[in-house]
Amino acid sequence: MGSSHAGPSLHGFRGRDAPTPQVSTATGCRYDHRMAKSWQYPRWRRYVMQVVMWVILAGTMGLAAAVTHYRSAALRVELGDPRARGGVTVQLPRDWLPQSVTDSRVTLFNLLDPEGEPLPRQLLVQRFAASADADLAETMLEGFALTGARLQRREELQISRRPGVLVIATHSIDPRFDRAGLRGKFVGAATMHDGEAIVIALIGAGPIDRTDVDLVRRVASSARVEAAPVEQAAD
Length: 235
What we know:
It is a single chain. By secondary structure, the chain is an alpha+beta fold. The protein has helices spanning 43-75, 136-143, 175-179, 210-222, 230-234, and strands at 22-23, 30-31, 79-85, 88-93, 97-98, 107-112, 122-129, 150-159, 162-171, 184-193, 196-205, 224-225. Strands 5-6-7-11-10-9-8 form a seven-stranded antiparallel beta sheet, with helices on both faces. The radius of gyration is 34 Å and the shape is elongated.
């Protein structure tokens, strides 16, 4: 009778001295101790892997920065030529639409963002009597009668070489909007000049964006304030 001969194992031949894969007591998985360890790589290969990792990281960060810069540039509002009224000369958004005002002695400029439907942003420049001891931030929030105003941030700045304040706040538009999580936004800059408050304010709805703050800062930095015209002061 011919001797029986066992066929090859599905897992391949194992030599007499071939090591048996170990079983991890922690995971129950088999592993082969012959697998390469990081310290077994040549030194040059480890350097190449580190360089590739840093290149990928730098590329990802650079792409994110480029996208952020592009978005900010796309949303940046271009200012027009200086315009003067009521002793205030200021640069205003070039493509925003002028709106009528009820009292031109107080509201010097009133513009509407044409791309902000259905709740467009509004930019106002105002000049009105105020106490020299009054807090400019409170004067702005009270002057615009903002319901449920919540001060988010307050910073110092200069307007026409005079000390001023920048205020960022949210306020209630309507209880229905509040329940939906939509609140009004207010970004205002103000300074005092001869017993009058000079206010540059942006009003809108939704989250406060960095472009909102940037716009108010740029308009405020362009402002030049002089004494009010005699006819205005006499009224």
